[in-house]
């Protein structure tokens, strides 16, 4: 078998190899080292690259990846899983979205691929991650979460030709009802779009919530859907589950809060919105209702802020636009 080497994780034979990928150094000189596991099957097949915690406080995917590493037997696997369950490791250590060492510029790891070896903290990190990703990945699945426990939607890079078709197949096998075939001109600098432009079919899962919105059921369900994707790719034996009809979106819109205060929402993930649908209500510090914000778009709720308090300038609602049955 050809060697697969991601940092100090080196795989030359069936089984699990673990190690770390150095993406920079801490202020004390210790390495910023991302955990890597390579699960190699006994038979040849595709290489599926999985990473979680691109945003350091989005841990649902980390647990889905762990569940997969624990339960997939190399004897049953055709191909290889390369898993980086805690990608933005310094952000995860602080239970926050971005690295605490990113002091300038835009520190969102998912806007900095393919990275720059001489760039800012996050750009260097992205560079060291993207080199082996581009070298080895036949497919990319990138795990994220949003605000509440009921978040379940997905997007794939809708690239031309084979790359887009293969990504659409992954999305269909994952089977979330709400899916965005994402146009390539959005989410610039994401691993999704960067890899797709390099011909790697790429897919993002948005499953579950951050912090107290973490949910074991979403993890179990996600792990089974991931096994279904591997069945679809021929990496595992068994019939591919058809999860039923989907909505495809044309795009999405983030609506930010322009008022602060105590907030209670009226809608939940998956609800259909019309223009003018009331999204919730703000109270002032005396308990009086001061505003009921309305949806500016028709679509489906992908994520909604759960309050109970809200400053201005945070995501109030994330809407999938123009849903159509497929
Ligand atoms: Zn995220």
- Small molecules in complex: zinc ion
CATH class assignment of the largest domain: Alpha Beta
What's the order of the H and E elements?
EEEEEHEHHEEHEHEHEEEEEEEEEE
What's the main sheet like? Answer: 10 strands, mixed
The coarse overall form would be globular
**Total discrete domains:** 2
N/C terminus separation: 41 Å
Global structural class = alpha+beta
CATH names the topology of the largest domain as Aminopeptidase
Which residues form runs of ≥5 with pLDDT under 50? Answer: none
How confident overall, as mean pLDDT? 95
Helical content band: 10-25%
General description of the model:
This protein is of the alpha+beta class. The protein folds into two domains: 4-232, Aminopeptidase (3-Layer(aba) Sandwich); 249-325, RNA polymerase II/Efflux pump adaptor protein, barrel-sandwich hybrid domain (OB fold (Dihydrolipoamide Acetyltransferase, E2P)). The protein is built from six helices and 20 strands. The protein has a ten-stranded mixed sheet, with helices on both faces. Strands 12-19-17-14 form a four-stranded antiparallel sheet, with no helix packed on it. A hairpin with a 5-residue loop joins β15 and β16. It is globular. The structure holds zinc ion. Zinc ion is lined by residues 54-55, 58, 144.
